[in-house]
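Task: complex structure prediction.
Instruction: return structure tokens for all chains below.
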Amino acid sequence: MITLEDIAKQAGVSHSTVSRALANSPLVNATTKAKIQQIAIESGYQVNQVARNLKTRSTKTIGLVIPEVSNPYYPKLIQFIADEVRASGFNLQLHLSGVHQEFEASCIASLYEHRVDGILLVTAENGLVAKEQVKSLSNSQTPVVLMGWIEEAEHFDIVTGNDAHGGSLLASHLLSLGHRQIAIIGKPPHRGIFDRIHGFQSTLKSVGISIQHNLTIPNSLAEEDQEIASTVQFLINLPPPPTAIFA
Amino acid sequence: MITLEDIAKQAGVSHSTVSRALANSPLVNATTKAKIQQIAIESGYQVNQVARNLKTRSTKTIGLVIPEVSNPYYPKLIQFIADEVRASGFNLQLHLSGVHQEFEASCIASLYEHRVDGILLVTAENGLVAKEQVKSLSNSQTPVVLMGWIEEAEHFDIVTGNDAHGGSLLASHLLSLGHRQIAIIGKPPHRGIFDRIHGFQSTLKSVGISIQHNLTIPNSLAEEDQEIASTVQFLINLPPPPTAIFA
DNA sequence: TTGAAAGCGCTACCAG
DNA sequence: CTGGTAGCGCTTTCAA
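Output:
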């Protein structure tokens, strides 16, 4: 492995000068700089980021913890994050925390040990599993941002959708169109949907519309496309049928 | 950031001893060791892998270069690799080289700079873009394994499917079933399929069956499901129709 | 069983 | 403009 020292010898200067030259510092004589850079290229020198990271106390890498990758939502997220990270001149350390986030804690530990400059932690149905770790990390220097479903946001930095508000907006929209007989398909399989339905229903209630249970179809009856089709059929055949369906 | 030295002070020993104790070395007095480990846990010490990597000249991480992640094949690959890497106690540094592998070279450079212990390079339709880099890497200490389509394997370590042989096997199978009128759907959009068709056709030829061009449907006519359906319809209506379709 | 010391390759300070 | 030197935090000899 070729080092700064090797180049220094070849160029007849000190390794400090080489370091400066390769960082394109204006403190180096232009001729010397050119010569050094030339030698560096010819010899195929590649800086040792490990040493640099140790010295500068920064790794220019961010850690991404994501449950899995078979759910197509995650690859999309990874793609976006990876592009952004590269564009900013950072690196990505990827850890899969497992479908049930069973490795979440060890992923975080490993990333901290590698002194990544920041952690992006994507949670899933189980919420934030390694809560204590994240807490102690935020007390340290490492910034952590959570994405996904988090039960209690506490003092964490977090990016998530406001599902309840979304549901509420939907309800307002339908109400403004004059709908009063509104069916609901889908029972909460996980938090986000629960919140959406909850927001939807409470807005309905707030204007005095009571939830009609015969119009509320639990999710278990509407998992497959086919079942959804027949569920819709059933709703339409009701006397009177709903004028709108929230699904 | 808490270091070995901090723990050493607290325990009243030297940092060398702490290092040994945390590595569970038998050279350390059992009582001291227990005490040190206790302090380490209480203080929340986490080893600095950057420093360790510099000293040991090994990073326990492998670099994965993959074109993109929207093609569902790649997430599957990532999942598998990530699991294996973790199971072996390694870390994963992920780089997306871009749909057309436009970043392949810089990905490899970055991984080398980080002194990863090995690189897994997945190529796509463009083949191996950063050929020179890989060559010089294999001359260095960093092992590189290529996956995907590679035009010339040269001296690289490579894992790939034998598409031509696969096509040939398919042909033999159909022949053994007595088929002689065999249609082919799909023109090569990329190398693998080209090879498969080629292997298929040469096996056909080798037993004296000439390729019937009216039975060979170019891919451009069969990209969408719908078009494939009508293509099949067309083939079946031929006088005489093929008895088998290779698609 | 322990500590002192060297050194991984780099950056950055301080003199000159 | 340049070199010497210190030191990032760790592992690993070498002596004691």
